[in-house]
Amino acid sequence: MRKRTLKRGLTAFWWFTLAFLYLPLAVVVLFSFNAANSAASFTGVSLRWYYQLMGNEEILSAFANSLVLAITSSLIALCIGCLIGYGMYRHRHRKLGWLIVLIYLPIVLPDIVFGISEMAFFVQIHRLTGLLQPGLGTMIIAHVTFQIPFVALIIYSRFVGLDPTLFEAAKDLYASPLKRVVHFMLPTIKPALISAFFLSFTLSVDDFVISFFTAGPESATLPIYIWGAIKKGVSPEINAIATLMIGAVAIAAIMSLLFSRRRHA
């Protein structure tokens, strides 16, 4: 009897937690289809706000910036993080505690501290050399710096899960270093690479604080646009933008999870 009561209590707590997490998102999605001009009341279902988004050049520009920023930074972080992850695996038997700390530091560091430090660095470089003017370029660099640790740890965990004798077998079969990379390493860690890319993409699309501190006047992303527009009040148009972002992040997260499961299979 006690076990059954405990099980029901845990089940109820589970559903309550899910409702607490996702009901606010559901409200945003619901009111994005609101036919009324105000988000205060729901009068009917309409796609008018989505059609209005398609004709708003400012929103389309912010969307394009978000897409370019996420894809470019994710690809760069994937290349650099893959090399770091493999290096951590190759030298895993050495005492590299300081390297692990450096890898984890950008993950645990508060975003506002990271964003301010990036902004101060870019401003000083621009003042001294005229380079790195705040804009999409500085945002890409900033995003790469906080995406690399996630990629490196995912790739490292994949290499750790491999049988070390596979590397020796490739050498015994007279495979050159290039052939080992092309025909053995890349196919083996392919699910981890795809998972790391989608995770980096999700982090980039979702980021506001670091983007805000490193953006230029012509490089606003969707989160920055929403932050500026919400000062005038929450409108169904803002709900529509948020719904599209929720969908994009959810798809990327699901893809990352699916490839991560394949990686551990």
What does this structure look like?
With 265 residues, this protein is mainly α. It has a single domain, classed as Orthogonal Bundle (MetI-like fold). Helix content is 78%, strand content 0%. The chain has 11 helices and no strands. Helix 8 (177-206) packs antiparallel against helix 11. The protein starts with a helix and ends with a helix.
The value of Rg in angstroms is 23 Å
Let me know the largest β-sheet: none
How many distinct helices? Answer: 11
pLDDT averaged residue by residue: 80
Topology-level CATH name: MetI-like fold
Shape: globular
Q: Gap between N and C termini, in Å?
A: 38 Å
Low-pLDDT segments, ≥5 res: none
Features:
265 residues, mainly alpha, MetI-like fold, 0% strand, globular
In a few lines, what is going on in this structure?
This protein has about 260 residues and is an all-alpha fold. The protein is about 80% helix and about 0% strand. The longest helix is centred in the first third of the chain and has 34 residues, at about 55-90.
